[in-house]
């Protein structure tokens, strides 16, 4: 099994070197990141993602920042994870990233998480009420 994981990691690294498509590179980076995090190599994952940040468009940058936040979280560097998620959110208001930010804030012991959870609840309730009013006869 370990040999399969090592072979997959080597393959992903080779594909990254030759990839000319940003979308394809992001998919490969995500898989490589997952492999590295599963074996506890979160620092190595961050190094690879930081290098990739220099070669990516701003509109896709948020995805790498989110992956970096996952790596920092795996290394229990919650404040760094929070910083990466905030930067990712400044580029794209993805709801999953927002919820991950709340989780990171909770892990970091930051009370700010409570306010964000309350905001999420308001957004959810507002959206639910809006859907219910649209579906009534």
Describe this structure in words.
The chain is mostly helical. The chain is built from 7 helices and no strands. 83% of the residues lie in helices and 0% in strands. The longest helix is centred in the C-terminal third of the chain and has 24 residues, at 112-135.
From the structure above, extract its key features.
single chain; 137 residues; mainly alpha; disordered C terminus
Helix content: over 70%
- Oligomer kind: single chain
What is the CA-based Rg, rounded? 18 Å
Sequence of secondary-structure elements: HHHHHHH
Main sheet: strands, sense, barrel: none
Structural class: mainly alpha
Q: What's the mean pLDDT score?
A: 83
What gap, in angstroms, lies between the N and C termini?
A: 58 Å
Strand content: under 5%
* Count of alpha/pi helices: 7
What characteristic shape results from the CA principal axes?
A: globular
Number of strands: 0
Topology:
Layout: H1 2-18, H2 22-38, H3 42-53, H4 58-74, H5 78-91, H6 95-107, H7 112-135
Helix pairs in contact: 1-2, 2-3, 2-4, 3-4, 4-5, 5-6, 6-7
